[in-house]
Fold each of these.
Amino acid sequence: VQLQAFGGGLVQAGDSLRLSCAASGRSLSRYVMGWFRQAPGKEREFVVAISRNGDDTYYVESVKGRFIISRNNAKNTVDLQMNSLKPEDTAVYYCAANIYGTTRTIDTYDYWGQGTEVTVSS
């Protein structure tokens, strides 16, 4: 499956941004989908994941209550609504897919998008 993430940009603290991940090649309904991010000089980290049917979501503590992940298997897309953005959210955001059913473990994700950059100014 090929993934393409887009929607990043430069925003101010407190603003909102919506990232999207579009898939081609296979139906996303087979995969747990996740968003990860990598800030400058830091390792890539888990942000949020959503189960295959969308019923369950998993968030890193720092984004709970601010970020919302959703998916539309019919359209083969996964979105990440990011609200109340903070400067510490600045990173390149990647969408990823894993068929194993895991959520937070980066090494279990088989397919990755190219990343979209989010910059939050204070």
Amino acid sequence: VQLQASGGGSVQPWDSLRLSCAASGRSFSSYDMGWFRQPPGKEREFAAAISWLAANTYYADSVRGRFTISRDNAKNTVYLQMNSLEPEDTAVYYCAAGSNRFPLAMSRGDYDYWGQGTQVTVSS
């Protein structure tokens, strides 16, 4: 599966953004999907994940309550709605696809396919 992330940009603190990740291939609905992010000068870190039928979601503590992951299997797309953005959310955001796991995978190594990343900058 090939992934294309979009929707990043430069916003002010407390603003919202919605990232999208469009997948090619007919098997999108069979994959768990995740969003990771890489802040400047830091390692890539887990942000959120959603199971293949959207029955389960999981969030990093740093984004829980502010970010919402969702998916539309009919459109082969996964979303990350980001509210109340903080400067600490500045990062390149990557979407990823992986085999079904329970609980949902939070490790980079558990995801097989990656998008190219989209930059999110939060600054006043």
